[in-house]
Amino acid sequence: MADTTLPLAHTKPQSYGRRVVKRFLKHRPAVISLGFLMLLALVIIIGPYLSPYTFDGQDFTLIGAPGPMNAQHWLGTDELGRDAMTRLIYGGRVSLAVGLAGAVIATFAGTLVGALSGFYRGWVDLLLMRFTDVMLSIPTLPLVLLLSGLFRPSPPLLVAIVGLLIWMGTARLVRSQFLALREREFVEAARALGAGGPRLMFRHILPNAIGPITVSATLAVGSAIMLESALSFLGFGIQPPVPTWGNLLNSASSWLSVAPWLAIPPGLLILCTVLAVNFLGDGLRDAMEPRE
Amino acid sequence: MAETLVQVSDLKVHFPIGRSLFKDGVTLKAVDGVSLDIARGEVVGLVGESGSGKTTLGRALLRLIEPTEGSVRFDGTEVVGLPPRDLKALRSRMQIIFQDPYASLNPRMSVGQIIGEALHLHSIGTRADRDERVGDLLEKVGLPRTAAARFPHEFSGGQRQRIGIARALAVNPDFIVADEPVSALDVSIQAQIINLLQDLRQELGLSILFIGHDLSVIEFLCDRVVVMYLGHVMETATAADLYTQPRHPYTRSLLDAAPVPNPRAKRDRIMLKGDLPSPINPPSGCVFRTRCPFAIEACAQVEPALETVGPRHAVACIRQAELNLME
């Protein structure tokens, strides 16, 4: 039979991964953002080791009012005599760690809810999606203010709260992916072979939805960083003396008119990081789901 | 005659449409009271227009779509309502080949994984000799053993269809539903796949329900043909009988619609007008009456039953005795 030899040698099709990388590199804002985020990661990982100060070390001669920027303290000192740059870099660690961990939880929870909802449909879908709607309809900040009046969360609890406040978008996205993919013939073929629900969901459908989920996870990192900053700014997040970008902004806000150099760097870093993460998400989306 | 392997009686598949908390919605009757038998080793063709319910029927036989009513007996076992554990065991005996070879293979799995999964799910062979079996299956469908390491997007449509066939054969089925397996392929490739099915059928003694709309393919491959229209069986006959002496006006019109090699050949054809009526609100009596050139008033009153008119030949038409369709 003529069909028996595989005519594969002449044009080797590019693998999915390679095509994704190629398309991603064409998206300039995303590439620049990726560079920025890598640089930021490098600084916050090794920065605290290079700094002669610790994040909570005080210079008692400088206590009382924020100190200006100078050769010893590049970004000045706060009202307690602590080096602002060391606190900014260390705070980046905390902010990014909480942001990443919160996004992981949100992605995991959202994927699970969306997968069950889209796969089983019917009353499972009805129940889970109405629950999602309820979660979406709760205004985040008033809820958090209420909670902050009741207790002070530990970092793991904070991560959990951040994750549980931002999973809904992922859930809706994953549900729509599952609704579409479950009708595909390769899923039906696996069903005809006797594959059960979990196998169909996680071996056949999920790997084909990994593109949109990656994008959604990236965007969730941005939301989580924003949310953590907002919580810390309002005093509900990580508690001093441990710095985060949010509580640095909080403590700098009372000195805004006399020492703006304390408020601007954390504010700028939150802005740039969230922006970069969103650009990165856009770039990944364009690379993984080309609308050709 | 050989023993009956698949026995379908009065099978109905109805889909609720637009039903919600606040309204009742309507019912789409995709398959509405179909009965048919398939003998061991027999190839039965199922023809009809798009929307006639033939794909739904094929899926319902395998319980890929839940039947609403009726019975499907497979080798004596009632399939409708069978508990999941027993159904899984039965799945190794009845398989399906799909129409679209681009949609029926998981793009993220290698060919070896796709075929190996069938073996894994039914615990066929040990982990070690599964690779060997996958290679054997690939050779059986005319692909090299090395194909196992590759991914679906590296193959042409015809090659992919062979992979789909290998997956179906992996579990040693007795019965295969072939859902328009060649409709999406180039004509030259179609012939190869049909020959492959023919060879496999002879070698393995498979029973096949071959769903299609290309009458010449069906005539070549099938022992018997079932004609469906709007969820009902119109006529069933051996392939030879159906093509030479159709008794139902719908069958005649399908045969007339098939192209003939000689464009100058004068033919007295029955041409159908209009579209298939909606299966949500099918015509009363005979569902075909709205497009039938021979319809009389009585056709709207009685729902015609399948009447035996010859050896293995049955027709659902109240006027079949008086009509002479092959003048």
Textual characterization of the structure:
The complex is a heterodimer of chains A (292) and B (327). With 292 residues, chain A is mostly helical. Chain A has helices at 16-25, 28-50, 84-120, 122-137, 140-150, 155-165, 168-181, 185-192, 197-205, 210-233, 245-253, 260-288. Chain B has 327 residues and is α/β, with parallel strands linked by helices. Helix content of chain B is 29%, strand content 23%. In chain B, the strands form 2 sheets. Chain B has an 8-stranded mixed sheet, sandwiched between helices. The longest helix of chain B is centred in the middle third of the chain and has 18 residues, at 187-204. Chain B is globular, with a radius of gyration of 21 Å. The interface between A and B is medium-sized, with 24 and 43 residues. Chain B: It is found in: Cell inner membrane.
The helix/strand order of chain B is: EEEHEEHEHHHEHEHEEHHEE
Distance between the termini of chain B: 32 Å
Query: What's the rounded overall pLDDT mean of chain A?
Result: 84
How are the strands ordered across the major sheet of chain B?
A: 6-7-8-3-9-10-12-11
Unreliable spans of chain A are 1-5
Strand content of chain A: under 5%
Shape of chain A: elongated
The strand count of chain B comes to 12
Low-confidence stretches of chain B: none
Q: Return Rg of chain B in Å.
A: 21 Å
Biggest interface, chains and residues, is: A-B, 24 and 43 residues
Task: Count every helix of chain B, treating DSSP H or I runs of 4 or more residues as helices.
Answer: 9
Please write the string of helix (H) and strand (E) elements of chain A. HHHHHHHHHHHH
Oligomer: heterodimer
Q: What is the terminal-to-terminal distance of chain A?
A: 35 Å
Structural class of chain B: alpha/beta
What coarse outline of chain B follows from CA principal-axis ratios? globular
Main beta sheet of chain A: strand number and arrangement? none
Largest sheet of chain B, in brief, is:
8 strands, mixed
Q: What is the averaged pLDDT score of chain B?
A: 86
Keywords (chain B): ATP-binding, Nucleotide-binding, Transport
GO molecular function, one term (chain B): ATP hydrolysis activity
Pfam families (chain B): ABC_tran, oligo_HPY
Protein name (chain B): ATP-binding cassette domain-containing protein
